[in-house]
Amino acid sequence: MADPSAFLGPIDGTGSRGVLLILPQIPKGVEVGMGAVSDELGFIQFFVGTYSKKQLQEVKKIFFSSFDRAVETPISHAATLLERAYSKSKEGLNELSRGYLQLRPWILENVSLLEQSAIYDFIPTDSISEPSLTTSQIEKLFSHELMKTWIIDPDKLKPLMEDIQRVKESRILVSDAQKTDQINEAKRKTISEVYSEGKRLLMKGRLEEMAYFFFKLEEEEMAGLSLAAARSLDERDSPLFVNPFLEAMVERSLSFHMQAARETQESGGGAADSPSKIIIP
Prior knowledge:
Radius of gyration: 21 Å
Helix content: 40-55%
Strand content: 5-15%
Mean pLDDT: 89
Strand order of the largest sheet: 4-3-2-1-5
Order of helices and strands: EEEEHEHHHHHHHH
Number of domains: 2
Largest sheet: 5 strands, antiparallel
């Protein structure tokens, strides 16, 4: 009998990703679990079914068409992500996700869950130098197509956008330097509010997972940049230091939402589409 296998999609800007588990059955056929999980919300959608090997090819085709450039990963990795999602689903699994309860007993009995991110099985922590990210390196990381959905929710930035507008229109702050200082202070405040300690840990985990994803795609430079960004989040911010990756997240998100708002006004349309969508068949 073939060994169990698993595939993962990349993480989007909301911390969501696709997961596919394939468990061979005796005497024939496979049990398949497929869906999407979020590192904040838990299960988004997950269903389980038994298929023939021929039907499995169609199921895999559906998964790979929904989650671009998915990679194969050890069953322990996928199971760890599913169990974390299960622990996040504090109100219980919804109707679209209860299929996981069929797989969970097998997972708990047969799989050893990971104690740290899978990337450290390939890049040990003691081999990593102190994180040091330049602006150009951060821009290179964000320019990758798999990072295009890494945008902060507009509702979280609305107060900042309003503050920036007020400062620009202020007649009290007469110099450009004063206005720049006020806007920078508003941005620093937003970073500390949006990225509380818990949210920084989530972001660190996302970056570690993306480092693993890039590594599996044999894009080792991107893996190194993503891992450096993750480890930089261990350093606390101060009045003299703001994490450059988080600062870049705010800047690119501001630019995205302001551009979307301008385009909406010019076209006379409604709200801009969300930059991130999970699609499950």
